[in-house]
Amino acid sequence: MNVTIEPSWKTALEDEFQKEYFRTLATKVKEAYLKELVYPPPKQLFNAFTLTPFDRVKVVIIGQDPYHGPHQAHGLAFSVPEGIAVPPSLVNIYKELASDLGIAHTDSGNLEDWATQGVLLLNSSLTVRAGEAASHRPLGWEQFTDAVITLVSRQREHVVFILWGAHAIAKRSLIDEAKHLVLTAPHPSPLSAHRGFFGSKPFSQTNAYLVAHYETPIAW
After folding, report:
1. CA distance 66 to 50
2. Active-site residue flag, 65
3. Which of 15, 65, 107, 146 is catalytic?
């Protein structure tokens, strides 16, 4: 199957794209785009992979679904395009970043700069029906994104996996903790951030690990 995705990922995932489940998934996703309003726009479906090539992955942050409001989703977990109001979970991520590293962010919720430095902002489902959270999980996206996580774990070394919330923490079994760092905390949502997300210091821990393994830290 010919999938339009960043070249290093296309090579790394070549076998996955040939599997029957992915063919079925691709068909369902194409049908969804034709029949309903789906986010993100088709050209931004694999944006996380475009901005963070396979051989440059240093950090993986796992989200759940794309934002399901107008103009919010652009293929990066937790991120929104320039000019869009910063969502509540990202507001709390910025609060923790300020507390952890003293970095204050502007009104922009665009995390493309993180992505280009090697932070793979991966949602478990890559598409969503407008206005309906989790609406495309039944399509089978998680089998694919679980394969992505497993591939990074197996073929890369000294990657930091940041797992926020029960849904992301459930992916922990896919990661080889003998050669990677796994950081977990409650989800940054306003409903759960006060249960331990605040004060978890993921940004300083990530950079300390990267530096200890001779990698350039992330300029958060």
Report:
1. 16
2. yes
3. 65
